[in-house]
Design a protein that fits this description.
The chain folds into 2 domains: 166 residues, Adenovirus Type 2 Hexon, domain 4; 137 residues, Jelly Rolls. The protein is mainly beta.
Amino acid sequence: MARIYKRHDGVLDWEESGQDRLQLPRNYHVTHLLCKYTVTHTNAANAVFNDDNLFASINKVEIVGNGNKNLKSIKGTKLALNTILSSTMMPKKVLDTTEGTGKVSEVWFLIPYSMFGTIRGHDTILNTTHYTTLDLLIDFGNKNAVGTNIEITAAKINVYSNALIGYKRNPGEVVKFFKETQTVEPIVNTADEHTITLPTLKLFKQFALVSTVDGVRSDAVIKNVIIKSGTTIILNVPYAALQVENLMQFKPEDKTDLKGVCIVDFMPRGFMTDCLDTRTNEFNTLELVLSVEKIGTKTDVTIFTDEIEITNIVEA
């Protein structure tokens, strides 16, 4: 019989274009980290936060075990997206745009270990006792990253863990991880077929595609999405259709939270057996083919991958 154990693990402090590290406890099976990001800032007249608001000042989040095992490597956009997809909303978001100094804004977000949207999320629960070190690293951006006429003067992230004491996997069950990675693809030309090579020998839960034009999320970049392996077409769907499907599936409290975002979810039923398994011989290649339009000075598509990594570790 397992019981929940919640605790405050520590604080990370913002430094412009700097990094802070928090050593995480290594005692229990942990389902997720809950984080509160509090930002103090100065607002000039007509201050406006951008689409990613406070998350835009987080360049990268990493969870690293034993100094070299990277479990998470994502930017702030994915933190917001994870929170929305797992709970349909941003649970608490306070953004102060009034003119003056000493203004305080805050957001809360999740860093999940147990994979959300699955029947058995605890299949990927993180047993932290397997590591001799376990670190949360945050790379922060510049002081003007969050919007127009807004300048960060100080910030901190409080980190809380949600663990299970006495939890045991099923006899003979191997350890699995919920791994998150990202890659940024510059769009330099309008093209009917912009091909991006994806890795194989992996188990994919989903791909989340986030389009930006000059740093602002946009629904005008991607027109169509194809995923294929050789001549085998796995998916061929217009961007607009994927967006409607995403809104119906994830039901965001604020539809604009998914502006510029489309998600290809291979496990809408929640069964891990439905994942895109590219470990077989039929997947010699895996390609994402986008019909795209180059807009503005800088157009990018960020591909966030959610993977299930299976180890050969069997817990006693």
